[in-house]
Every structure is written in structure tokens, then in C-alpha cells.
């Protein structure tokens, strides 16, 4: 794996400022809405997953995953 | 970004030297010509319209010439013009940093995460800088657009590397983005810049490697380390 492709979540015009907290949260929600709409099998949602994994600290993702499982996730899914 | 800061410094220095030379000349000239032995009876000028106008206009124009490039730089530093090639998350803890390279993850499991601790004074080897070296450096490719996302897990920290022109507060619950592009390969040092407790002086070390070496550095060096942890 010496040649890895340097690729990450692109700059998003919705979040042009230094504060990227919403960017991460929005990408996380977009992924789960995509899964809800298209189902797990469709490969279209994978890019959103890549984006939120690039942007969100692992600790936050773990916390949100837990909250989704227990049904108290504070966002529109 | 760093180049912009250096250029602004040079721009401002032009005005600074101009003013210094002018003021020194006036001062020395006044001391010379109005010495009490040479000129025992002082002239009594109470008003001069021309000089009043000149010394009002020029000092108000000069700050404008300084402000224009300064604001241009200030606002351009915030803007992300191009899509970054990699994202690195720097998470401040008391008192170490966790770095996450998550661009290559295929699940929510973190694969490239490591902690970076300052080397204690007793463990330093000859030639290492006291309170500056860390055990795991942040490896980044040179001449590449990087996105650094800075946050904290406990108290406010800061991620500052002066040679790269970067200083960004790490606030719990908030992600701050900075874009940098390291122009030369090398090792860059920084320290925390927000009072965060006893070991506030914990350090940040960025190592820029050639882009072609980055892949192997990341896959060979960082994966085994995170595997041990």
C-alpha cells in the first residue's frame, strides 16, 4: 500500500468558515439519511461515509452511533 | 500562507523604515540647528498652515497603505480555495495530542490513530530539544494542501506551529479548520498556546516528507504503532 491515493472530503461551500463542526455533523446525517432512503446495499452512500469519517473525530462518531442505537440521537435522521 | 505573512512583514517594514529615517532626521536637525550656543534666541512660530495640513494628511494615509494588504491577507487566510488532499484531526488532551488520519478508513473503526507525547527531560537523547521533541511526529506530505481539524477532548488547548504560520485554538465540542501547505520538507516545532494546565508546554512536531514518501511512511510507520496501542 505504498501508493495511497491522497483524497479527502472536499471543501463544502455550505461551510466556508473556520468552524467545521456542522460540516462533520451534516455529513454524518447525510450518510444515515442516504442509508435510510436507498438501503445498505446501494453503494451511493459510501462517499458520505468517507466524508464524515474524514471530518469527525472518532470519539464523536462512537457517541452518535451509541445514541442512534438507543434512539436518542439529537438530529433529523 | 506563511509566504503571505512574510510578505506583509516586508511591506510594513518599508513604511517603518521610512518613518524612522524621517523622524530621526527631524530630531537630529532640530538638535543641531537650535543648539543654545548657536541659536540663543528661539524663533517663535505659532502657526503654519502648510505644515499643519501635511502632518495631518500623511499620518492618515500611511495606516491606510498598511491596512489594505493586512486585511487582504487576514481574509484570504480563512478561505479554503482548493480542495485539500488530506485531512488530519488534531485532538488536544491533558497533556498529549491524538492525531487521526481517517481518510482511508472503511468502517467507523479508527485505523490510523496515534498519541503524541512530549519526551520527558530524562529520556532525551543528545541533540534533542528539551520540551520540544515528541515520541510520534505528525507526518505530512510537503507541497500538498492539508486540512487540519483542531479540537479538544477536555479543556481548551491550541495547535500552533509558528514556522507554518498557524495558530488555532482547540475548543471542546467544536471543530476548527485550518488549511496549510508545507513548502519544504523538514521538521517543524510548535507548542500549546492556550493555558491548559500543568504541562501546558507540551509540544507539537510536524514532519514534512516528500509526497512520494508519504504513502509508505503512513502505511509502514503509523499502522504498526496504532496496532500496538
UniProtKB/TrEMBL annotation, chain A:
Cellular localisation: Mitochondrion
CDD domains for the chain: Cyt_c_Oxidase_VIb
Cysteines engaged in disulfide bonds, as pairs: 24-56, 34-45
Xref: SUPFAM superfamilies: Cytochrome c oxidase subunit h (SSF47694)
PROSITE patterns associated with the record: CHCH
Keywords: Disulfide bond, Mitochondrion
One Gene Ontology term, aspect cellular component: respiratory chain complex IV
Biological processes annotated in GO: proton transmembrane transport
Family: Belongs to the cytochrome c oxidase subunit 6B.
Task of the protein: Component of the cytochrome c oxidase, the last enzyme in the mitochondrial electron transport chain which drives oxidative phosphorylation.
Protein name according to UniProt: Cytochrome c oxidase subunit
From TrEMBL, chain B:
Keyword entries, A-Z: Copper, Electron transport, Membrane, Metal-binding, Mitochondrion, Mitochondrion inner membrane, Respiratory chain, Translocase, Transmembrane, Transmembrane helix, Transport
Top-level taxon of the source organism: Eukaryota
Gene Ontology terms describing biological process: aerobic respiration; electron transport chain
Compartments it resides in: Mitochondrion inner membrane; Mitochondrion membrane
Catalytic reaction annotation: 4 Fe(II)-[cytochrome c] + O2 + 8 H(+)(in) = 4 Fe(III)-[cytochrome c] + 2 H2O + 4 H(+)(out)
Major place of residence: mitochondrion
PROSITE patterns with a match to the protein in the record: COX2_CUA (PS50857), COX2_TM (PS50999)
PANTHER family reported for this sequence: CYTOCHROME C OXIDASE SUBUNIT 2, CYTOCHROME C OXIDASE, SUBUNIT II
UniProt similarity note: Belongs to the cytochrome c oxidase subunit 2 family.
Protein name: Cytochrome c oxidase subunit 2
Protein's organism: Eucalyptus grandis (Flooded gum)
